[in-house]
Amino acid sequence: MTKSIILLLLMSCLACSSPSSNIDSHSDSHIDSNNHAQTEPSLYQEMGEKPALDNIIDNLINIIGQDDVVFAHFAQSNVTRFKDQLTVFLCHLADGPCQYKGDSMKDIHQGMYINKNEFNHFVELFIEAMDNADISYPIQNKLLARLAPLRKTIIKI
């Protein structure tokens, strides 16, 4: 029951987002303008596509559910919606085959009064979730680099 409550809290973060887009369980081939196969895979592909994202997010939800520092920010969340929206958001951010049409990170975190320590702690939990999903450090760093600019829109204190 505790895990369910924690998952619900996590989902509240993105509960106000617009309905999510679908994510294909397979990725399409990438073709450049000369009709040659693209030589470098997208970050989404490097991560392991949707199965890897699902694994990261499942890990994150479980970790947050057991965390005293950030759990309160997720207490009123719809866990299923949070999972769906975060999956689409990360897929889009990693150049996957999805388009995030949800609310901005600024709007989602409005009124949450997240401070620097809470934000940094959440990042540590996210890294732990990626570690548990066997995402390599170079791939983690690439994803974190894409997430880093959001910091200023989330921290309010």
Radius of gyration: 16 Å
Q: For the residues shown, what is the average pLDDT? A: 82
* CATH superfamily grouping: Globins
Name of the CATH class: Mainly Alpha
Strand content: under 5%
- Overall, the morphology is globular
- The total beta strand count reads 0
Ordered list of secondary-structure elements with their pairings:
Blueprint: H1 2-12, H2 43-47, H3 49-65, H4 71-74, H5 79-93, H6 105-108, H7 116-132, H8 137-147, H9 151-154
Task: Describe this entry's structure for a reader.
The protein is mainly α. It has one domain: Orthogonal Bundle (Globin-like). It is 56% helix and 0% strand. Helix 3 packs across helix 5 (79-93) and helix 3 packs across helix 7 (116-132).
Summarize the structure.
By secondary structure, the chain is mostly helical. It contains 9 helices and no strands.
What brief labels describe this structure?
mainly alpha, Globin-like, 9 helices, single chain, disordered N terminus
